[in-house]
Amino acid sequence: MTRPKEFTEQLAFLVKEGTGDRIDAVRGNKKKADFLREAVESAIRRQEKKRLAS
């Protein structure tokens, strides 16, 4: 039996030139996709906390 896919929604967006290089410089041994997922989740949680505090 295979396990259900954890990541099923795709997002595509443009970033400023050089952003990919900046990500590569700080992500360490993490895969770029994992790094970006964590960064997005962290930003969303931060915004949700702000919204709840308002």
Task: Please explain how this structure is put together.
This protein has 54 residues and is mainly α. It has two helices and no strands. The longest helix is centred in the C-terminal third of the chain and has 22 residues, at 32-53. The mean pLDDT is 95.
Question: What layout of secondary structure does this protein have?
Answer:
Elements: H1 19-26, H2 32-53
Short description:
With 54 residues, this protein is mostly helical.
Strand fraction band? under 5%
| Main sheet: strands, sense, barrel | none
Count of DSSP-assigned helices: 2
**Overall number of strands:** 0
Beginning-to-end CA distance, first to last residue:
46 Å
Given as residue ranges, the uncertain stretches (5+ residues, pLDDT < 50) are: none
Question: What sequence of helices (H) and strands (E) makes up the elements?
Answer: HH
Structural class: mainly alpha
Q: How confident overall, as mean pLDDT? A: 95
List keywords for this structure.
single chain, 54 residues, mainly alpha, 56% helix
